[in-house]
Amino acid sequence: MAVGRRKGAPLQLRIDGHAISAHSGESVLSAVLQNRHTVRHSEFTGEPRAGFCLMSACQDCWMWSAEGKRLRACSTPVSPDLDLYTSPPTRLTGSVPCAKS
Ligand code: FES
Predict the structure, then answer these.
(1) Residue 44 lies inside a defined structural domain of this protein
(2) pLDDT, tens digit, for every residue of 5-53?
(3) Within a 13 Å sphere around the CA of 43, how many CA atoms are in the beta-carbon half?
């Protein structure tokens, strides 16, 4: 999986309900940052975040599935069936279920 270069077949995935362009073989983080400036906002300060370590360590790139499953954008490969959100789905209350990695 490439972090910052495009290769592979073009595809689209959905981020916050909007289709974005990507290429197979790249990470969700790479695809998101080629289409927008941030991947999420800090739950502590509200500041925009764009990932930091790019190796699944810093937890700066959390995104959520429609079901509320949390995942790291930097270590998740793109696929056309992805429907992700930059904040927990609003219908979820309390704690957000964490993906086991
Ligand atoms: S950028 Fe650090 S965990 Fe994804």
Answers:
(1) yes
(2) 557 999 999 999 999 999 999 999 999 999 999 999 998 999 999 999 9
(3) 10
